[in-house]
Design a protein that fits this description.
There is one protein chain. The termini are far apart. The chain has helices spanning 4-12, 19-32, 36-47, 80-86, 96-103, 116-124, 138-161, 172-180, 182-185, 219-233, 238-256, 262-275, 285-296; strands at residues 58-60, 62-67, 71-74, 89-91, 109-113, 131-136, 194-195, 210-211. α10 (219-233) packs antiparallel against α11. A hairpin with a 3-residue loop joins β2 and β3. The protein has 13 helices and eight strands.
Length: 299
């Protein structure tokens, strides 16, 4: 009878096998080998993400609104920076089963609703029709391909390390090997922007991985700026007030994440950099602009 490691290698190469089924097999093996980081990653994929996301879970999007004559039309922004902030990428937090179901939809494009703050800002700009986040269905296929390849790479790395298993069991020697080679066979934490030795897919795949340059903002820094932005929001127009309060909430939430959600922090800072200069009558504007610039340049 083939071991679970051999089964994973074969099944990962078969595109007809649902990824959720593969992940459950990974969870069995990882649990018996006491690879807690891998189990945590599998649970996030099976149940959906509630905190930090791996980069492969963020897909390119654009903002569109529905025109009664021409159908869905792109929202045009006053600058490339605004376009990047409001479009950019969209996090896909759904379970892998839901992603698989969406990827099977016949439509070329899929649409998601927007946060209330962004919808309110678009209304201020004269776009009264409901806007949506539009992304290509093939982006979801990309998520599925990354996860399938990661499972294959993981099973091959176990094999290379000398961990084969017998059925769904592992010997004491193999469990000892797993502990000795944790750095190359264990996924870690909530998966930050990291590339590791078993492929270059973004996501935390090993403890000795190298982190990309990113904004390093302390929890204290983020909270102080959030307080300052809420003060400025009270002097903003309705749309900007909503957005500034949302930015402040995002700073607080991202700083509370363990580890801090650097991608969300950076996006919030960029949006704040665009909004704060509009607060011409606010005495704290210059200080807020300087702090935002400092934090964007950190790390």
């Amino acid at each position: 009878m083939a071991s679970i490691v051999e089964e994973l290698q074969a099944l990962a190469c078969d595109s007809a096998v649902p990824i959720a089924d593969l992940l459950r097999r990974v969870k069995v093996a990882a649990t018996k080998l006491d690879l807690s980081g891998t189990v945590a990653w599998v649970d996030s994929e099976l149940n959906g993400y509630g905190g930090n996301l791996p980069d492969y879970r963020c897909v390119p999007q654009r903002l569109v609104y529905f025109n009664m004559v021409h159908g869905w039309q792109p929202v045009m922004f006053e600058s490339d920076e605004m376009s990047e902030i409001f479009s950019g990428t969209r996090p896909i937090t759904s379970s892998i089963r839901e992603v698989e179901e969406l990827a099977r939809q016949p439509d070329a494009f899929l649409y998601l609703t927007l946060p209330p703050g962004i919808q309110a800002q678009l209304f201020q700009w004269g776009i009264e029709a409901e806007a949506r986040s539009q992304f290509n269905r093939t982006a979801l296929t990309g998520i599925l391909d990354v996860v399938r390849t990661r499972i294959l790479d993981w099973a091959l790395e176990l094999d290379r390390t000398g961990i084969h298993g017998e059925g769904v069991s592992f010997s004491t020697q193999e469990k000892d090997l797993a502990r000795q080679h944790t750095a190359t066979i264990n996924f870690y934490g909530s998966v930050g922007n990291i590339a590791g030795p078993v492929g270059t897919s973004a996501g935390s795949v090993s403890v000795n991985a190298t982190q990309r340059n990113s904004t390093t903002v302390s929890e204290t820094d983020a909270r102080k700026l959030a307080v300052l932005l809420r003060e400025g929001a009270s002097m903003a127009s309705n749309g900007d007030e909503t957005l500034l309060n949302q930015v402040a909430d995002d700073l607080d939430d991202a700083a509370e994440s363990q580890p801090p959600d650097r991608g969300r922090l950076h996006q919030a800072l960029r949006l704040a950099r665009t909004l704060v200069p509009r607060l011409l009558g606010w005495g704290g504007r210059v200080a807020a602009e300087a702090e935002i610039q400092r934090l964007l340049g950190a790390g």
